[in-house]
Amino acid sequence: MTKPSGPTVDLPLRINYGEKLTDYRTEFSPDEKGLYRVELNAMRNGVALGSAQSTFFVSERTREFNDAAQNVELLKRVAAETGGKYYTIGNAKDLLDDVTMIEGRNSEKVTKELWDMPINFMLLIGLASTEWFLRKRKGLS
User: Fold this and answer.
1) 8 DSSP β-pair partners
2) How confident is the model at residue 20 (pLDDT cuts 50, 70, 90)?
3) Which residues pair with 24 in a beta bridge?
4) Is 127 helix (H, G, I), strand (E, B) or coil?
5) For 6-34, what is the mean pLDDT?
6) What angle do CA 29, 34, 39 make, to 5 degrees?
7) Cα 26 from Cα 17, distance rounded (Å)
């Protein structure tokens, strides 16, 4: 691994005795901010098997990551105050049934026929014509 300031650090990988014996791990705690470059070289009995390279960036934590856990009470309160509903993973299947148009002063239901929208009509005619042209060009019926 190459640090942002230039020096390199060798990090030996250890086999991860988990589900697969093909997983390897190492641990590293960055001591500098900046762009780190990682280069992996696989060797067996002195023969190179392959290599890979990647980079990662280390920076200060931003406010976005402070206390990033889900705040259930806040979400429930916001939903209650705005006339919404809070969904958990367990009742997320009910979301589709609950998503309907709510009649109110800020909502208006508008129904338009497909043929009353010229862009849709032109797209439909264009796609059908293109398909017909390509079939005739290739000698298909």
Assistant:
1) 2
2) low
3) 15
4) helix
5) 84
6) 65
7) 13
Q: What percent of the chain has pLDDT over 70?
A: 96
Full DSSP string of 24-77: EE------S-EEEEEEEEEEETTEEEEEEEEEEEE-PPPGGGTT-S--HHHHHH
Contact indicator for 108, 102 with CB cutoff of 8 Å: no
Give tens-digit pLDDT for 98-127: 877 667 777 777 787 777 788 888 998 999
Q: Which region, left, alpha or beta, applies to residue 6 given φ > 0 means left and ψ of -120 to 50 means alpha?
A: left
- Copy the structure tokens of residue 114: 């497909």
pLDDT for 79: 92
